């Protein structure tokens, strides 16, 4: 179909990626241009192919789906992001929408809903699961700054302050200050506890 909606898929689980591609290709007005197993591959495909829609999971190697959405919103706005995930948490939804995603769908929904969401986003609409949207409306606000989130995520993965400082080009003292702020905001006992709380709420 000459005017088919062009889609790039990003999913790190090979079987899921293959199934999604096969399902979308069954729709006459959708065309899967490329499949990516990590965020960097997905971004490279977007830059090269300039698709209409990127469908991506949140948790992706190298670049997350939220990082991809933010990058596309800033530098490749012609490609709209659809998040397809297992995370039914208001915190993730809010972060996705703040990052520029135009749709937030759960993987347990029927395949037809994904295809229809792609069409709606292509028409300029936003698509969010109604139950999750209602829950997000009354959910607790994320108190973390972007830098606190970056540092806390790494701390939760077991990295030391020195390792985090090296990755983010900060001093050890600055990293410790950010961690102290995050721990205080979350009312946590320590950095590991803070990361656990933030992940449970969808803030990491």
UniProtKB/TrEMBL annotation:
<dbReference type="GO" id="GO:0000160">
    <property type="term" value="P:phosphorelay signal transduction system"/>
</dbReference>
<dbReference type="InterPro" id="IPR011006">
    <property type="entry name" value="CheY-like_superfamily"/>
</dbReference>
<protein>
    <submittedName>
        <fullName>Two-component system response regulator DesR</fullName>
    </submittedName>
</protein>
<dbReference type="GO" id="GO:0006355">
    <property type="term" value="P:regulation of DNA-templated transcription"/>
</dbReference>
<dbReference type="InterPro" id="IPR039420">
    <property type="entry name" value="WalR-like"/>
</dbReference>
<keyword id="KW-0238">DNA-binding</keyword>
<feature type="domain" description="HTH luxR-type">
    <location>
        <begin position="137"/>
        <end position="202"/>
    </location>
</feature>
<dbReference type="GO" id="GO:0003677">
    <property type="term" value="F:DNA binding"/>
</dbReference>
<dbReference type="InterPro" id="IPR000792">
    <property type="entry name" value="Tscrpt_reg_LuxR_C"/>
</dbReference>
<dbReference type="Pfam" id="PF00072">
    <property type="entry name" value="Response_reg"/>
</dbReference>
<dbReference type="InterPro" id="IPR001789">
    <property type="entry name" value="Sig_transdc_resp-reg_receiver"/>
</dbReference>
<dbReference type="Pfam" id="PF00196">
    <property type="entry name" value="GerE"/>
</dbReference>
<dbReference type="InterPro" id="IPR016032">
    <property type="entry name" value="Sig_transdc_resp-reg_C-effctor"/>
</dbReference>
<feature type="modified residue" description="4-aspartylphosphate">
    <location>
        <position position="57"/>
    </location>
</feature>
<feature type="domain" description="Response regulatory">
    <location>
        <begin position="6"/>
        <end position="122"/>
    </location>
</feature>
<keyword id="KW-0597">Phosphoprotein</keyword>
């Amino acid at each position: 179909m000459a005017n088919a909606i062009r889609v790039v898929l990003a999913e790190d689980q090979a079987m899921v990626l293959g199934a999604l591609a096969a399902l979308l290709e069954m729709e006459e007005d959708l065309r899967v241009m490329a499949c990516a197993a990590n965020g960097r591959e997905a971004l490279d495909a977007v830059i090269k192919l300039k698709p209409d829609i990127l469908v991506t999971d949140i948790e992706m190697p190298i670049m997350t789906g939220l990082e991809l959405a933010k990058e596309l919103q800033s530098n490749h706005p012609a490609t709209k992001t659809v998040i397809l995930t297992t995370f039914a948490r208001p915190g993730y939804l809010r972060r996705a929408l703040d990052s520029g995603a135009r749709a937030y769908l759960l993987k347990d929904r029927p395949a037809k809903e994904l295809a229809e969401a792609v069409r709606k986003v292509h028409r300029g609409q936003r698509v969010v699961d109604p139950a999750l949207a209602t829950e997000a409306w009354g959910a607790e606000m994320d108190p973390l700054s972007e830098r606190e989130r970056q540092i806390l995520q790494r701390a939760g993965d077991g990295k030391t302050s020195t390792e985090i400082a090296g990755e983010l080009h900060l001093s050890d003292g600055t990293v410790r200050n950010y961690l102290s702020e995050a721990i205080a905001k979350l009312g946590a006992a320590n950095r590991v506890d803070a990361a656990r709380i933030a992940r449970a709420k969808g803030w990491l």
